[in-house]
């Protein structure tokens, strides 16, 4: 039996293409006959369901010794079908090309009536938000878009995309119209990974479908829009933020997936050094002060702050947050969504929060002088304040506050801890193997005065679990600055950033690069990751 294509990492693709026979004939591919097959893989067929088989014109014909399920397909490029099959059988899939009439006959000999294929996907993906009825628009083009948005191809594609994104642990979905197709990319472990593109004919329906779900205006295509929708995907509640921006080939959509079920909010699981973790917990339990977490977008700052809140949360404490957006929902914590368009900014919300008798206050981000001043005064008047800043390292945060106009005496009196952090990808433990660092890496480390000969380093060679990437998940590396009398005195005396850094180093504050190197020496990440991130 000749296999046309083996699909070890199923991805999203087009709905059945027209003229498939002509396309495959052009490449000289041969059709597999099903007439000589005495019995089909009936058990697998029942597990997949008749509706999936009928909709995509597929039938399982064999299960190989290694567990691979061989599927006959009228269109082996129907990656939506491959995705659904794999989700149902939970085994590797190999596909062969077969005549649709023969597949239809095989399906009829196996199945009895069951639910529709759309119902199968609906069981996996449910919209949790109660969407209001859209106002009717008389324009013909908008009516067409609404029709396309509810057609089976668009619904199936979006649902399949969401299912795969959860399975692949993606944080963002990028849907990018190109000249000839619809480009699909998922951000997995912080890196964008490209998947086979979808047919351009799906573009208008898919974009309209997402915009309607996110309560966006499908008639407006000239300006960016932002919205949100809550799904229940495979039994898990997932909040999805949708952002559109017009491009030359149509609107690009990015869907940010906030999956609470995939994120641990246990402070002990974030990778802090034991001694520094103990000191951080002490500062978090203090009656007042300020804990700042810094780093670029996507470095896990909010997760760290939520983990601190989760650690100190108790019925005896009044904890209030103001965020934009509210990314996690914690039981027992009062969370406020900032709405600048109606005047509810971080600063105005913080003023109101301080009249709510809080013990602990979290401000999503210090963006301006006004917010910084209110937060610092709150820390000085008996409140524990947590917030984030965008700076490169812990010491630079002090300089940033000074440059914003905060008095140095207020900084030394209020700030307790500054945590700078980055996320590095973990080496996949299923395919990890020792390696020799490349010559470029070795030369780079030598310039840093680091000897690599005394350590063993590892790299993932790529396997089924990590989809060939060599990485599985991410972990934090941290630079933690505890304000001590020496550092406070240097700030008061207008010391330079370099002088403060030297004092922090003497007090035991390791740099992000040094912390990352320790993780690489333990085989938890790679030297390339440390250099890239830190």
Give a structural overview.
The chain has helices at 20-26, 42-48, 50-56, 79-89, 100-110, 117-124, 140-150, 152-167, 203-213, 274-284, 301-312, 346-353, 369-380, 394-404, 408-414, 439-447, 485-492, 497-506, 512-521, 527-533, and strands at 5-7, 58-63, 69-73, 93-97, 125-127, 170-177, 181-188, 191-199, 225-233, 236-247, 250-258, 289-294, 319-323, 334-337, 360-363, 384-389, 415-427, 432-435, 457-460, 471-482. It is an alpha/beta fold. It has a 7-stranded antiparallel beta sheet. Strands 14-13-15-16-12-17-20 form a 7-stranded mixed beta sheet, with helices on both faces. Strand 3 (69-73), helix 4 and strand 4 form a beta-alpha-beta unit. Helix 13 (369-380) packs across helix 15 and helix 19 (512-521) runs antiparallel to helix 20. The protein is globular, with a radius of gyration of 27 Å.
What keywords describe this structure?
534 residues, seven-stranded antiparallel beta sheet, 36% helix
What's the end-to-end separation, in Å?
Answer: 51 Å
Rg from alpha-carbon coordinates: 27 Å
Fraction of residues in helix: 25-40%
Low-pLDDT regions: 1-18, 113-118, 130-139
Shape: globular
Q: Which structural class is indicated by helix and strand composition? A: alpha/beta
Major sheet details: 7 strands, antiparallel
Amount of beta strand: 25-35%
- What do the pLDDT scores average to? 83
Helices, by number, come to 20
Physical arrangement of strands within the biggest beta sheet: 5-9-10-11-6-7-8
Number of strands: 20
């Amino acid at each position: 039996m000749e296999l046309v294509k083996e699909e070890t990492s199923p991805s999203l693709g087009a709905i059945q293409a027209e003229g498939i026979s002509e396309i495959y004939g052009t490449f000289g591919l041969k059709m597999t006959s099903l007439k000589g097959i005495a019995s089909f893989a009936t058990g697998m067929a029942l597990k997949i369901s008749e509706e999936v088989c009928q909709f995509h014109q597929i039938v399982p014909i064999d299960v190989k010794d290694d567990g691979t399920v061989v599927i006959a397909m009228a269109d082996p490029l129907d990656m939506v079908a491959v995705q659904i099959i794999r989700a149902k059988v939970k085994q590797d899939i190999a596909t062969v090309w077969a005549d649709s009439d023969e597949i239809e006959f095989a399906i009829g000999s196996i199945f009895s009536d069951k639910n529709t294929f759309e119902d199968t996907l609906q069981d996996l993906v449910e919209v949790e938000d109660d969407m209001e009825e859209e106002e009717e628009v008389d324009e013909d083009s908008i009516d067409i878009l609404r029709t396309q948005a509810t057609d089976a191809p668009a619904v199936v594609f979006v649902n399949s995309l969401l299912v795969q994104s959860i399975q692949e642990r993606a944080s963002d979905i990028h849907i990018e119209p190109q000249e000839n197709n619809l480009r699909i990319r998922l951000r997995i472990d912080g890196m964008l990974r490209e998947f086979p593109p979808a047919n351009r004919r799906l573009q208008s329906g898919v974009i309209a479908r997402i915009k309607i779900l996110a309560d966006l205006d499908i008639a407006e295509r000239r300006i960016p829009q932002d919205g949100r929708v809550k799904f229940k995907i495979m039994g898990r509640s997932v909040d999805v933020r949708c952002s559109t921006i017009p491009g030359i080939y149509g609107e690009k959509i990015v869907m940010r997936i906030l999956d609470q079920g995939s994120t641990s909010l246990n402070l002990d699981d974030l990778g802090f050094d034991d001694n520094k973790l103990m000191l951080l917990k002490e500062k978090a339990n203090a009656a007042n002060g300020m804990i700042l977490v810094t780093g670029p977008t996507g470095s896990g700052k909010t997760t760290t702050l939520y983990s601190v809140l989760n650690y100190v949360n108790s019925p005896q404490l009044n904890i209030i947050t103001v965020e934009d957006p509210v990314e996690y929902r914690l039981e027992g914590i009062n969370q406020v969504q900032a709405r600048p368009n109606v005047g509810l900014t971080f600063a105005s919300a913080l003023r109101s929060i301080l009249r709510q008798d809080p013990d602990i206050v979290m401000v999503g981000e210090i963006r301006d002088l006004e917010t910084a001043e209110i937060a610092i005064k709150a820390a000085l008047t008996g409140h524990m304040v947590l917030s984030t800043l965008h700076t490169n390292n812990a010491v630079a945060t002090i300089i940033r506050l000074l440059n914003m106009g905060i008095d140095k005496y207020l900084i030394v009196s209020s700030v307790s801890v500054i945590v700078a952090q980055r996320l590095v990808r973990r080496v996949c433990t299923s395919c990890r193997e020792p390696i020799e660092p490349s010559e470029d890496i070795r030369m780079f480390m030598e310039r840093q005065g680091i000897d690599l000969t005394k350590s063993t380093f590892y790299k993932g060679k790529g396997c089924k679990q990590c989809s060939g990437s060599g990485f599985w998940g991410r972990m934090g590396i941290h630079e933690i600055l505890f304000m001590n009398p020496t550092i406070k005195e240097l700030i008061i005396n207008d010391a330079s950033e370099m002088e403060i850094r030297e004092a922090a180093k003497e007090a035991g504050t390791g740099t992000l690069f040094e912390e990352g190197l320790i993780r690489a020496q333990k085989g938890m990440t790679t030297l390339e990751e440390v250099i890239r991130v830190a």
